[in-house]
Amino acid sequence: MTGTTGTPAGPLGAPAERREGRQKVTGAARYAAEYTLPGRAHAWPVPAAVARGRVRAVDTSAALALPGVLAVLTPDDAPRLAEPEDGTLAVLQNPEVPHRGWCVALAVADTLETARAAARAVRVGYDPAPPDTGFTEDHPGAYEPQEANAGYPGRVEQGDPEAAFASAEVRIDTVYRVPPLHNHPMEPHTSTAHWDGDRLTVYTSSQGGGTVRSVLAQLFQLPEEQVTVVCEHVGGGFGSKGTPRPDVVLAAMAARRTGRPVTLAYPRRYLPTTVGHRAPTRQRLRLGAHADGRLTAVLHEATTHTSRVREFVEQAAVPSRVMYATPALLSTHRVVPLDVPSPSWMRAPGEAPGMYALESAVDELADALGLDPVELRLRNEPDREPGSGKPFSSRHLVECLREGARRFGWDGRDPRPGVRREGPLLLGTGVAAATYPAAAVPATATARALPDGTFVVRTNATDIGTGARTVLAQIAADALGVPLDRVRTEIGHTDLPPAWLAGGSMGTASWGWAVHEACTALTARLGGPLPAEGIEARADTAGTADADSPYARHAFGAHFAEVAVDTVTGEIRVRRLLGVFAAGRILNGRTARSQFTGAMVMGLGMALTEHSTLDPAFGDFAEADLASYHVPAHADVPDVEAHWIDEDDPHLNPMGSKGIGEIGIVGTAAAVGNAVHHATGIRFRDLPLTPDRILAGLLSEG
Predict the structure, then answer these.
(1) Rounded to whole angstroms, how far apart are CA atoms 451 and 41?
(2) Residue 3 gets which letter from DSSP?
(3) Alpha-carbon distance 599 to 597, whole Å?
(4) Which among 576, 537, 542 has a CA at the least distance from the CA of 559?
(5) Which of 298, 353, 387, 323 lies closest to 558, judged by CA?
(6) Residue 490 burial by CB count (10 A; 0-12/13-18/19+): exposed, middle or buried?
(7) How confident is the model at residue 31 (pLDDT cuts 50, 70, 90)?
(8) DSSP code of 486?
(9) CA 632 to CA 558: how far, in whole Å?
C-alpha cells in the first residue's frame, strides 16, 4: 500500500492546507525587509573587486556627499566585533581580502536607491596578491580532513578494498564531476536591525533564529536575553540560511552606527560569493562485483574545494557507507583550500552529489554485467548499514524500487540503449536510489489549554516554506485528541521556547517531538474547569532526542525518469519523473507531496541546467543571477509524481516520522543521467547535461 491512497482517521497525516497560505498569497505575510520601522534606513554592500589582497584605502567622500547618505562603514571605522567562530562573519574588521566579493564597505542611506548609489560612489584601493583559485585533484595543498561536514569521519575503510577491487570478476573504474551549485532562494538574504539602547532586535531571513541570536550576542558581546530575533516568514533557504550570513551582522553594525533601524537585502548578484555554495566535486568510483552482480568492493573517493576563511568539506563519499552490501569498502575525502568564496550547505549536502556519482556508477556496472539496473540494486540490499554495522531502524528501499517500477512501467523497458526513436528524438529511461539520514535534536515547546476550549502551542521553529506551522498543529491536535481547528501555533521568535534550526531534514522531527511531549503532558492535567489564564505544560527533549541510538536511521527512495534527447539540438526533455519514498509516517500528505516534488524539480535543475563557472583569473562565479544561472521553469517539468510507502518505524520519534525536505533531490540527477545513457548509448559523466555536451558526445559517436 502506498501513501497516495486512503484517508487518515485523525489530524495527523491528513492533507491539511497551509495555515499561512492566505497570508502569503495576499501579501499579508511579512518578510525580513517588510518591517517598516519608524526612521528606517537602507544599506548596500561594496564587494571586493580583487580575488586576494588587502584594502589599501577607501575613499568615501563622493558617497558621503550624496543627499540622504548617513554613513559609509569601512574596515577602518566599522564597529568592532568579537572574533567569530565562523570567519565569514568577520566583516569590515580588517583590511584583508580573502576572496572576490568579500564586503569591503557598507553604504547606509535614507532610501534603498540612495544607498545603492552611494555604494557605487565608494572608491577602494587595493594591494592585490596572486590568487590560487584552481580546483585540481593533484593540487599540492590537497589534504585528507579528519572530518567532513556534519561530523562525518573523513575516511571509512573496511576490509581490503584495493585487493578486493583488483581481484573482482567485473570492475568499473570511473570519475564523475559536479560543478559549483548555488541555492538562490526567492527571497535573498535580508535583515532589518534595530537597537534600543543595548537591546538588539533583528528581523531576518534565516532558517534558525536561535542560532542567529547566539551568534549576534557573541559578536556584540551581549547577554542573549538582550537580543531578539524574529523569523516569522522565510522565502526559502535550501541550506544557505542555515547559519547567520553577513547581512544580519552588517545590518546590526549599520544600525548601531546610525542609531536608526537599518534594512540590508543582499543583491542577488552578490549572493554567490557571500552566502555559500555547493562546492564542486570530483568523485572516483570503483566498483567490483561477481558475475552475478553481488558487490565485492566499493571505493568512493571524493575531492572538493574549500576557502581559506573556513573549512567546509562536502561529504560526497558518505552515501556509499549506507547503500549497498559489500565486504570491502573505502569512502574517503580530500579537500583543496583555495582563495575562493566559502562553500556551505545546500539541500542534501553530500548526498545530492554523492548519490549522483554512486548511482551512475551502479548503472554502469549493471550495463557491464548485462543486468537490469533495478535487479542489480535488489541483489545488493544489505541487512545492516555497511559503514557502521548497525541494524537499520527501517529500510524499505526494495519496496520503493518495486513500487516505482510498477507505477513507471519499468518491466516493458527495452534494455538496449539507443534503440527507441521518435524522428530525431532518442528516448530512454533510467532509475536511481535515494537515501538521507533521519535524525532529531533537542527542542523545547509549551502547550496551553484555554477556557474557550482552544490550545496554543509555542516553539521557536522556523517555517521556510515547508508548512511547519500546519504540521506542528497536526501533531498537537493528534496528541491532544482534539480537532485541528482548535490548535494555534506560534513559531519564528526567540521569545518562544528554544528550538533548533530548520535544516538537515530534522526540523519537524525535532520540534514535533517536543510538541508531542508537551501536549501529552498537558492532556494528563486536563479534567476540570480551567483558570482564566489556562494551564500550561512544557517539554524539553534534551537527553532523549539526542540520545545515542543503536540503529542506523535513514529515509530511502527510488527515482525513475524518462527523457527525450534531440539529436539535432542536443536538448534534453524530461518527459516523466516518478519518485517513491519510504520516510516513516507522513504527517501531512499535501505538504509532503509539495516537498518531494519541489526537491525532484531541484534535482532536475542539477541534472540539466544548473552550474557555476569559477573564473580562474578573478576568483568569481560567472553565473551570478537567475538570467545566467538557469533553474527549471514550469515548461521544463511536464509530469512529476511523488508517492510513498506506509512505513512504521518505532525507533525515530513519537510521531514515527523521518525528514522529507532533502531526500527528493537525492538520486534525481542520476536517474536523469542514466536515462540519457539509455537513450543515447553514451555515458556523460559531467553535470549539467547541457546541449553542447550532448551534441559533442553524439558527434563523436556518429
Answers:
(1) 44
(2) T
(3) 5
(4) 576
(5) 323
(6) middle
(7) very high
(8) G
(9) 21
Buried b / exposed e over 98-137, threshold 16 CB at 10 Å, is: bbbbbbbbbbbbbebebbbbbbebbebebeeeebbbebee
pTM of the model: 0.96
Strands 281-289 and 295-307: antiparallel
Taking the C-alpha atoms of residue 210 and residue 201, their distance in angstroms, rounded to an integer, is 13
CA distances from 272 to 1, 106, 240, 573, 590 (A): 43, 18, 10, 28, 32
Q: What are the φ and ψ backbone dihedral angles of 626, each rounded to 5 degrees?
A: -80, -5
DSSP 134: -
Please report the pLDDT score of residue 325 as a whole number.
98
Q: Which residue has the cell 568564496?
A: 341
Sheet containing 295-307: order of strands: 155-158, 329-338, 295-307, 281-289, 170-178
Q: For residue 466, give the H/E element and its range.
A: none
337: which strand partners?
Answer: 306
Sequence-ordered list of residues with C-beta below 8 angstroms from that of 456, at least 6 positions apart, any chain: 447, 448, 450, 487, 488, 489, 490
Look at the alpha carbons of 439, 442, 443, 448 in this order and tell me if their dihedral is positive or negative: positive
- Average pLDDT, integer, range 447-465: 97
Query: How many Cβ atoms from other residues are within 10 Å of residue 59's Cβ?
Result: 15
Angle, helices 351-369/668-680, rounded to nearest 10 degrees: 30
Q: Are 283 and 175 in contact (CB under 8 A)?
A: yes
Residue 8's pLDDT is what?
Answer: 66
Task: Note the pLDDT of residue 430.
Answer: 98
CB atoms within 10 A of CB 171: 16
- For residue 89, the 8-state DSSP code is G
Cell numbers of 529, please?
A: 474547569
Q: How many CB atoms are located within 10 Å of the residue 402 CB?
A: 17
Which pLDDT does position 301 carry in this prediction? Answer: 98
Sign of CA dihedral 160, 161, 166, 168: positive
Give the three-state DSSP class for 399. helix
Taking alpha carbons only, the member of 141, 30, 91 closest to residue 249 is 91
Helical H segments across 57-153, by residue range: 61-64, 112-121
In the predicted model, is pLDDT for residue 6 greater than 70?
A: no
pLDDT over 80 (residue 9): no
Query: So what's the pLDDT on residue 2?
Result: 47
Q: 3-state DSSP call for residue 159?
A: coil
The pLDDT tens digits for 250-284 are 999 999 999 999 999 999 999 999 999 999 999 99
Q: What is the pLDDT of residues 140-156, one digit of tens each?
A: 999 999 999 999 999 99
E-state strands within 438-514: 444-449, 455-458, 487-490
Q: Which of the residues are catalytic?
A: 662
